[in-house]
Write a structure and sequence with these properties.
Immunoglobulin-like; rod-shaped; alpha+beta; four-stranded antiparallel beta sheet
Amino acid sequence: MLNSVDQKVYFEGKSHSAYTIEIESSFCISIFKPVLLPLMKHAVILFLLFLCCFMHTKAQQDEKDKVIIQFTGVILTSDSLRPVPFANILIKNTYRGTTADFNGYFSIIARPGEEILFSAVGFKKVHFHIPDTITHDRYSLIQLMSNDTIMLAETVIYPWPTREKFREAFVTLKVPDDDYEIARKNLALAELKDKFRDYPMDGSMNFKNQMYQQYSKLYYQGQYPPNPLLNPFAWAQFFKAWQNGDFKRKD
């Protein structure tokens, strides 16, 4: 019970409703205090344990990030084990990367647990995870890459802009001779005669002709040469050449 003096002092600063709420709050705290204190102690203990685990994990992650390894290797084809020259090596989610040399060899600085992406023109991309249990500062790898075949759609390019132009070119097309037809024309008797007739005389032929004329003069020296005017064979050759048109003018 509150005495009259205490009631007078209290009611001078607070209303009746506020006084009632304060009495109820103190009553509830007095009832639930034995239950809330152990729960608060357990919550504080759990929070401290969680904080310790988080700090330990963060320390391990920081320690792992500080570990740097020299990641080297060779990139080969999976079917013939030939080197893949100038392949691209990229550490995922970073701006670090390098390019293999002509023999497929590469070397790059990396950290445990990082993902490496290998790519090259004509090959499928390959992902590799560096183990996070590495204890040394070096790690080597022989990476195999498979060929990537890309089938392109057929594209036909015509030299004619319209169907009418194509039809006109097809009608007036002159089919070139094959090797057999060219050889047959070159070995034809009429073609050989025409070529022989139009073929100019070279130095050896002119020399032989001059020697033959000198020989003929020496053969008939001291006598009259025979006159082909009365030779029937000469007249037969003359009429034959006349019929063949050998004496016609060729312009």
